[in-house]
């Protein structure tokens, strides 16, 4: 039986000769499902084969969030624009107005759209400037 089908079937659907082999494969298939980020499927599989500790551990992984904190100084990015003599135009995501970004632009000017007042997302601006700088 292919490993993928192990997830789809239940122990009741397997013949009595297959159950021991499938039971032997279940932990490996469950770990492979976890590697693929399919924690709910891994939990269901482990539970089906009475591997309750593993089922609980797999389901707990569904609730984990990885947070990476990256600090980027937008002033340094603006300095790089200035030193390169670069000027670019960022479009306001709300009204579509053109917002000129150059080495002369201050971070205050980048905090909101001067036309509609929409607060500009710093992470979007940083990505935009980084794309310009290559």
Key structural traits:
mainly alpha; 2 domains; two-stranded antiparallel sheet; 51% helix
Characterization of the model:
- The two termini are 50 Å apart.
- A hairpin with a 6-residue loop joins strand 1 (87-91) and strand 2 (98-102).
- A two-stranded antiparallel sheet has the order 1-2.
- The chain has six helices and two strands; from the N terminus they run H-H-H-H-H-E-E-H.
- The chain has helices spanning 3-8, 18-35, 39-48, 52-62, 74-84, 122-133; strands at 87-91, 98-102.
- With 134 residues, the chain is mainly α.
- It folds into two domains: 3-62, no CATH class; 74-133, no CATH class.
- The radius of gyration is 26 Å and the shape is rod-shaped.
- The longest helix has 18 residues, at 18-35.
């Amino acid at each position: 039986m292919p490993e993928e089908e192990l997830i789809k079937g239940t122990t009741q659907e397997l013949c009595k000769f297959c159950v021991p082999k499938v039971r032997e494969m279940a932990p490996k298939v469950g770990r492979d499902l976890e590697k693929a980020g399919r924690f709910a499927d891994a939990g269901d599989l482990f539970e089906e084969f009475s591997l309750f500790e593993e089922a609980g551990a797999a389901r707990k992984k569904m609730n984990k969030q990885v947070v990476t904190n990256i600090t980027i100084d937008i002033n340094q990015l603006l300095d790089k624009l200035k030193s390169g003599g670069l000027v670019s135009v960022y479009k306001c995501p709300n009204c579509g107005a053109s917002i000129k970004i150059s080495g002369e632009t201050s971070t205050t000017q980048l905090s909101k759209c001067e036309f509609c007042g929409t607060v500009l997302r710093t992470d979007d601006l940083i990505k935009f400037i980084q794309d310009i700088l290559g």
